[in-house]
Amino acid sequence: MADETNTQADVPVETATAAPEGDQREARGRGRGRGGNDRDRPGGNRGGRRDDRRGGRGGAEDGGEELIEKLVHINRVSKTVKGGKRFGFAALVVVGDGKGRVGFGHGKAREVPEAITKATASAKKKMVRVPLKEGRTLHHDGKGRFGAGKVNLRSAPAGTGIIAGGPMRAVFESLGVHDVVTKSVGTSNPYNMIRATFDALTDQTSPKSVSQRRGKKIADLLGRGGATVVEAEAAADAITE
Predict the structure, then answer these.
(1) What's phi and psi for 104, nearest 5 deg?
(2) What is the SS3 assignment for 85?
(3) Which of 114, 122, 135, 168 lies at a CB distance of 3.0 to 4.6 Å from 164, suitable for a disulfide?
(4) What pLDDT, on a 0 to 100 scale, did the predictor assign at position 1?
(5) 68-201 sits in which CATH class?
(6) Does the pLDDT of residue 195 top 90, yes or no?
(7) Is residue 142 within 8 Å of residue 126, measured between CB atoms?
(8) Is the pTM for the entire model greater than 0.70?
(9) Rounded to whole angstroms, how far apart are CA atoms 153 and 136?
(10) Alpha helical stretches, state H, the chain
(11) How many angstroms separate the Cα of 114 from the Cα of each of 106, 111, 127, 145?
């Protein structure tokens, strides 16, 4: 009798424990299957939708073109607070497309990569267009000034190269200038040097813009420098900006 009661007790215990485990496994399998389908479905992952929106926004800012980004200077800054000092970093970045557009910006953050990202975003928003002669040099000489910094820019023949200091060189390389001679006087502060350089670049004008403003032909303006009519017309045809 003892054996019969034991076997009768074992049977319901096994059946009672096996049924719930099977149901739980099936439920878990269904839940995993639904979750997997959602992740595999295009656009099903919320993170993927965020990445798509970020990518579209970045393309709109850059205009779908490749930009040249150059880090000019990084400075460590500190702020004195009640508990001591908080250190951060300030970055100066120059951005250009190599085809006549350039801008600069600066940003501050607690970490260097974040400061560079802020400076790059600021530079992209403040890009300006500078007319170039033959796509390689400036149309005419120029002077710029900011604070104690003074810069002199001179156009140069082909093969001269970029003769400029560190901060100014970054501006011309991003701009797409291949031949230029520059001189910086008064300060070596990279912020003031770049601002003075942009002051000189914004004053650059092209024969095309001058002819439109004065209501004359480009050949007439170029012929006043002593060139013949044929040379003036050839030079006018070669000017694209």
Answers:
(1) -135, 155
(2) strand
(3) 168
(4) 46
(5) alpha beta
(6) yes
(7) no
(8) no
(9) 14
(10) 2-40, 46-62, 112-125, 166-175, 190-201, 207-214, 218-223, 229-238
(11) 11, 6, 21, 30
